[in-house]
Design goal:
mainly alpha; two-stranded antiparallel ribbon; 5 helices; 57% helix; 9% strand; globular
């Protein structure tokens, strides 16, 4: 898949657990886990916005394109 999700990297940089991010964003741990492992087929813009606010980052810090 050419789009790589670096959620785990940003969480590690911010020293934030999956439980903590789940509480801040309002998304279930299982859905965040799907994103974190790169198994997600899509992400809502609202979700991406909430994650960026919680991790104080930009969408490009989480999403990466690799050809």
């Amino acid at each position: 898949m050419p789009i790589i999700i670096n959620l785990d990297v940003m969480m590690a940089r911010r020293k934030m657990s999956l439980n903590e991010l789940s509480d801040k964003v309002g998304i279930t741990i299982s859905n965040l886990s799907i994103l974190k492992t790169g198994k997600a087929k899509a992400i809502r813009i609202e979700t991406l916005e909430a994650i960026c606010k919680a991790l104080d980052c930009q969408p490009g810090d989480i999403l990466e394109f690799r050809d």
